[in-house]
Amino acid sequence: MKFPRLLVVRQKFPDRRIPDVPAEVRKQLAASGFATRVKPGARIAIGVGSRGIHNIAAIVRGVVRYWQEQGMQPFLFPAMGSHGAASAQGQTDVLAHYGITEATMGCPLVSQLEVVSLGKTADGIEAFMDRKAYESDGVMLVGRVKWHTDFAGKIESGLFKMMAIGLGKFAGAQRYHSYAYRLGLEHVIRTVGRQVLGSGRILGGLAILEDAWHNTAQLEAVPVEAMEQREEANLALVKSWMARVPVDADILILDEIGKNISGAGMDTKVVNRGVMGEYNPWPDTPRFERLFVRDLSELTYNSGVGLGLADVVTNRLVDRIDWEPTWINSLTANTPAAIRTPIHFPTDRECLERISPTVGKVDLDEVTYCWIRNTMELGRLAVSENLRAAMERKPEMEIEGAMDFEFDGSANLVSPFQTVAAGH
Fold first, then answer.
1. What is the pTM (predicted TM-score) of this model?
2. Which CATH code, of 3.40.50.11440, 1.10.357.20, 3.40.50.2000, 3.40.50.300, is assigned to 32-241?
C-alpha cells in the first residue's frame, strides 16, 4: 500500500508557565492561613494522586517544607483510589516513579488501604477516608484541576474528585463508581465530597492548573470553605486553555497511551471517544473514524487501560500489558469496554494497511491521517498532505516541513516525535 507524504505541523499555544514554581508554592501557602487552623506540632496528612503532573515533585516538596516551617509534622499519603493495582506498595511505587519518596520529600510516606466511614450521603452513599489521614490533625490535598475523560460537567477532575474518590482508597472508589453508573459521576463527586468536608478533617488544597503545553500555569491555595466554587472556576479556566488536534482525520495515529497521560490511557476529549466505546461523542471536537495505537508509554508500567478505545493496535502493545492492574482499575471504574482487546497485527505497516480500507473511501489516496505522540503532547503533529489546505486556513498552525511515512527494517513506523521533549 502506498502512503501519502506527511506535513509536520506546529501549533502556537500561549505559554503560561510560572517562572519559579517553588516560589509560587511558598507565596500561595504563606497567604493561605492553613497553619492557623491547627495547633503547633500538629500532624498534617498531605494527599497526593497518581497522575503525571508537571513539576509534581517540586510542588509537593514545597508543600511539605511549608508545614515543616510552621512547626508541624507533615506526612504524605497516596490519595488515588484503586490506582497502583489497589495495593499499598503499588501506590507507593506510583509516587516513587514521580520522584516522591520519603528521601526526596524529607518526611514520612504512609501508604495503606484501611479506611474510616464518614457516614452516608442523602443518596445512601457511604463516604470513606484513609484511616491514617483521618487520624491526623488535618488533611491537605495536592492535585491538578482538569477535565475528566468519562463525562462533562462543572466539576470534573481535581481537588474535589480527589477528596471524594481518591481519599476513599479501593473500598470507596469501587462503591462510588457503582453509584455513578446510576446517578452520574459529577453528582457522586459533589455529594461525597461534601460528606468528606463535613468530617472537619480537610484543611484545604493546592490546586494545580496546567496550560496547553502542560506547564504549571497557575497554583492556588484553596480554603476548604471555597473548594467547590473554586473548583468550578478553575475547571472553566483550564478548559479554555485546552490543547486540541486541529483537524478531522480518517485515521488518528498515537505513538503511545498510558495512565501517566490520562486516566483513560488517552484523553477521550482529544481523540473523541467514550470510555464505553462510543465513537465521536464529544461536540466541538475533531472527528476521527479510526484510532491506531502503537504502544504503551514507559510510565504506565504496563497498564493497558485505554486500549479498548482503539480500533487497531500492535502485537507488541498487547504483549506488554500487565492485566492485573489493568483489570482492577477498569473494573473499579465500571468501564470494561476501555480494556477490550482490539484487532492487532505484528507490524505498524500491517495495522495501517488493514485499517485504512475501513474508513469508507474507495480511493485509498483520499484517506486522511493525523499522527501525534500522545494526547498530552499536541504542540507538534503530522498530517497527511491532503490536509494541507485545512492547515493553511488556520493562522495558529505553522507547517515546519514534509516527510514520508518512514518504516524501519521491521516494518514499524519511525516516529518524528521520539526525540522531541515534552512541551516546546
1. 0.86
2. 3.40.50.11440
